Amino acid sequence: MAEYGKVKVTGKIVYGLTDKPANRYEFDCEEMGGRVDVVSYFKHKHGISVQYPDLPCIQLGNARTCIPMEFVYVMGGEHNLAVGKLRPEFQQEVTRRTAMQPSIRRDQIMQALNNKELGNSVMRESTNYSNSFKTLSPPKFNVSWGLWCFTTESRPSQSDVSWFAGQFKTSCNRKGMTFAEAKFVEWPDAFNAYYKCRSNRDAFSPEMRDAVRRNLEQVAQTHKDLKLLVVLLGDNEAITDHLYKCIKLITETEIGTFTTQFVNCKKGIEDAEKKLNNLMLKITPKVPSMPTGSRAAFNVALSEPHPLLRKEEATMIMGADVTHKVAGISVAGVVASVDESYATYFHEIRGQSPYTLNTLKQRNRQSEERIIDLSSMTKSLLEKWKKTNNKLPETIIYYRDGVSDGQFVNVLKRELNGLDAAFKSISATYNPKLIIIVGQKRHQTRLWMQEGGLQADKGKGKDKGKDDKGKGKGKGKGKDTAQVPPGTVASEGIAQPSHMNFFLVSQQGIQGTSVPCHYHVLHMDQRLAKRVCVDDIETITFQLCHMYSRADKSVGYATPAYMADHACERGKHYLEA
């Protein structure tokens, strides 16, 4: 809420902060005859003296409405703050400034360890575990559609959009997906409502949402065989983000007969055309192989999977995560593999309380990390898996994300009981073999090769730098041979001695130092303990890191945990829409 003079504004979203303080942030004001700073404007317009002119202003609702910070109030409790990701331009700058090559990071750490001036605060004794690392071998391994355009500039024109539709169809066919000509290539009627909101710099519009719903229902009725709707967006404005969330909410929770794929055309239609190869990775798992069915049209598959991942083992992989501070509540997401390819997943999403309660039913301040409704979510996923595979899984590997060391006992106790309750609700005799693994990404452990360093780049300018293949915009930066290769596993000497755990670098280090994921095996069925050891868990996890369908390389942590994070993010979009 903002209140100054006789003006009171409520219900606005904080868009950002000005880059200058109130006494130096200027704008054009016809009433005062030219450019004027915020402090002078408030004195002239409202007769108010700003007490803290050296503080920046809050951009309320949009970038043009700048209110001195002292007049803005946050209403309600601690969970009503919309804490989200940084704006893209800020995130890119943070990533650029914090990235550090592994050899440089290694040298700085060793310099700190050997600095006697730091006193006893730094433990200078170190042990060389260079021989405890090992590197795992990587695993070998006619659609109806339409296009909507929500771009607001003079270009692209109708002919440009039609050209893009043709290029899209060609790229799909080149990748082995048979796409017919687009059913329609158009600016829908809802574009007028969207354009009006964008011109007014609105962040939310019920009228636009209703117009989008009418158009989507009309498309579903007119084109009953439609399987994919491609939507072109022209910018990253707040109303465009709201449009994205509305379309996802309506198509996935109300209509459900076709999927959507968004394309950002902020830099023009020609630049969007360059993204088509990457878009194919996202489209293939979305398009069904049959007009009716849950299996994706195309999937990657392991040619030599670990024995526990083979079809005859009937193994189901699960992933789970919780996201907090979403419209005042938390969102829990649980996914389960569709079949033995382990590339596509069923998902369940639930909202839950964002905080825990003590024995007196009073609110604690810590966030609730446990998945409250895990039992019913798991039961639903088991029923879907049975419908697809004609039997229940015999082994379940459950990957959990977002749990710190201090929450292991509470989460394990609650979720192990929830999983067991789900098994019993399916059948009193159903008792699959269960493994529970927690993955942690936020820690201070880094790995590097003992021999290696930053190699000089022979190229000049932006022709070299990223992977030394002419990609990226590196300026003379060569390859760092201190970077550990994908598949590097470390456990001896640095893992926790109390239980089975290990560090795994599964991704190719492109920028900075690769961060390993720390996996903890919190529960393993006694029936598996005799045939499954830590080496097997490492291999299974590394193979699953290659099954992320949106990337053509292995990713930083196991795919089921990744997909659970996506499910939580989608639930967040539903609530915000």
UniProtKB/TrEMBL annotation:
This is Ago2 protein. InterPro entries: PAZ_dom, PAZ_dom_sf, Piwi, RNaseH-like_sf, RNaseH_sf. Residues 451-491 are annotated as: Disordered. SUPFAM superfamilies: PAZ domain (SSF101690), Ribonuclease H-like (SSF53098). Residues 1-76 form the PAZ domain. The gene is ago2. Residues 228-576 form the Piwi domain. GO terms for molecular function: RNA binding. Pfam families: PAZ, Piwi. Residues 457-471 have a biased composition (Basic and acidic residues).
